[in-house]
Design a protein that fits this description.
single chain, 7 helices
């Protein structure tokens, strides 16, 4: 899997939503290898989009299409302080993304030991499958532009379910999860309470 993360200050939220819808209506059908997109705007006004492709080559072919470049020229006008992160290395939990999510949390940060962090996360899959059915999927995308930086996207059934699980199972109570969090720094949480989710079909 390959992920592209696009984020910035939302200067025109209705315009962002309109152009996301336009991409889905007019360009998605011909986007080779496109697996799904997640977009949302946080309460403090930041827009973030996580786009999943089957491979980096397919993602780049999509970006090179003239109609896509034209779309991005229009869509980027609704954002300030734009940052784009390519992630050719992606780790998934479950099916990765999920269009059934009622709440999506995007976590960005840095780790000095990505291999260990990912390994510990994989070790927790069985526990999450058993104890956290409200987590529908998850991706961890390693940024190519700065080694150690990552974007983790977690798809939940609802925010209420997510918060209840946090209260009942604090990270520090589970040794494996506690170590995962100890390896992360500079964390920034982006809560997408009204995520716009789409995938082929």
């Amino acid at each position: 899997m390959f992920i592209k993360v696009i984020q910035g200050r939302a200067t025109n939220p209705p315009g962002i939503r309109r152009d996301v819808g336009r991409w889905q209506r007019q360009l998605a059908a011909d986007a080779d290898g496109w697996l799904g997109s997640t977009t949302g705007i946080t309460e403090d006004g930041w827009s973030i989009t996580v786009i999943r492709f089957a491979s980096e080559a397919q993602a780049r072919r999509n970006s090179d299409r003239p109609e896509h470049r034209e779309w991005w020229r229009d869509a980027s006008q609704h954002l300030a302080r734009v940052a784009v992160h390519d992630a050719p290395k992606v780790h998934t939990y479950g099916d990765g993304g999920s269009d059934q999510a009622g709440f999506v949390q995007v976590i960005q940060g840095h780790t000095e030991d990505m291999e260990r962090m990912v390994s510990l996360g994989c070790d927790q899959e069985e526990v999450l499958t058993r104890d956290a059915p409200h987590i529908l999927g998850m991706t961890v995308a390693e940024h190519a532009d700065r080694p150690g930086d990552f974007t983790q996207t977690v798809y939940y059934t609802s925010e209420q379910d997510a918060r209840r699980f946090e209260r009942e199972h604090p990270a520090e109570s589970e040794p494996g999860m506690a170590e995962v969090f100890s390896l992360m720094r500079d964390l920034r949480y982006c809560d997408l309470r009204e995520p716009w989710l789409d995938s082929p079909g």
